[in-house]
Specification:
CATH class of the largest domain: Alpha Beta
Strand order of the largest sheet: 6-7-8-3-9-10
Radius of gyration: 17 Å
Shape: globular
Strand content: 25-35%
Number of strands: 10
CATH superfamily of the largest domain: P-loop containing nucleotide triphosphate hydrolases
CATH architecture of the largest domain: 3-Layer(aba) Sandwich
Order of helices and strands: EEEHEEHEHHHHEHEHEEHH
CATH topology of the largest domain: Rossmann fold
Bound molecules: adenosine-5'-triphosphate, magnesium ion
Structural class: alpha/beta
Distance between the termini: 37 Å
């Protein structure tokens, strides 16, 4: 299975570095989480992986390949799907149309249909609401649409940027259960979150990012028992 390795990456915007010498490994088959407060550099790390904010120093390896100089669509085409911060569903399109967008690199309609069926098995509610305008769905349902759209790419690695942001506690819980379920299907997950407690509960390994640096790392179990992590992120 494919591994993602971020090795000593420093990058940022304009003249300012936001990430400093960041090294993380995402083990195939696992859920790896990146925890950190607002502005820690979590989204920038995802942008670096996707080639949107490429490394200024260091390297990113995926599936045995150095991603240096790779275009974003090539990186996505190699099996990395991203569910962006704020979900970014298209409100005036139906649920089915939003989902179909996730399969934009696939042209075989039979294969697209079978992916859709698989997404509907995971989210029966989306099947019931297939023809509904996504903007009229609840926040939790829109979160399902965004995750479903990511799955439509049939990724090896699903990168999810703060899925629980703006959701009510009930939906947050449901969302994390869905991510666990997706991982159990064999999809590797890189989960970026501020909600440390529930994230660590479903993760295998994790990293804590603070001001663009990795300040703690280990198994999810060890991180959830780490006093500094607890006082900084468990409220
Ligand atoms: N497009 C950009 N141009 C300039 N600076 C940026 C840009 N995006 C992010 N930054 C800066 O980089 C730093 C890290 O931001 P980033 O979005 O990676 O943090 P984050 O951990 O994802 O935060 P949040 O939890 O609020 O989403 C911040 O200081 C931010 O202001
Ligand atoms: Mg962010």
């Amino acid at each position: 299975m494919s591994r993602l390795s971020v090795k000593g990456v420093t990058t940022g915007y304009d003249k300012v570095d936001v990430l400093h010498d960041v090294t993380i490994d995402v083990e195939p088959g696992e859920i790896t989480c990146i925890l950190g407060a607002n502005g820690a550099g979590k989204t920038t790390l995802i942008r670096a992986i996707l080639g949107l904010t490429p490394p200024r120093q260091g390297e990113i390896w995926w599936d045995g390949r150095n991603l240096a100089g790779e275009k974003t669509h090539r990186i996505i085409g190699s099996g990395i799907a991203c569910i962006p911060e704020g979900r970014k569903v298209f409100p005036r399109m139906t649920v089915a149309e939003n989902l179909a967008l996730g399969a934009f690199l696939e042209s075989d309609s039979g294969r697209i249909r079978s992916r859709l069926e698989r997404v509907y098995e995971i989210f029966p509610r989306l099947k019931e609401r297939a023809a509904q305008l996504t903007g009229t769905m609840s926040g939790g349902e829109q979160a399902m649409v965004s995750i479903g759209r990511g799955l439509m790419a049939e990724p090896k690695l699903l990168v999810i940027d703060e899925p629980s942001l703006g959701l009510s506690p009930l939906y947050v819980k449901e969302n994390f259960q869905v991510i666990k379920q997706i991982n159990a299907l064999g999809i590797t997950v890189l989960l970026v979150e501020q909600n440390a407690r529930q994230t660590l509960a479903i993760s295998h390994h994790g990293y804590v990012l603070s001001q663009g640096r990795v300040v703690a790392q280990g198994t999810a179990q060890a991180l959830s028992e780490n006093d500094e992590v607890r006082s900084a992120y468990f409220g």
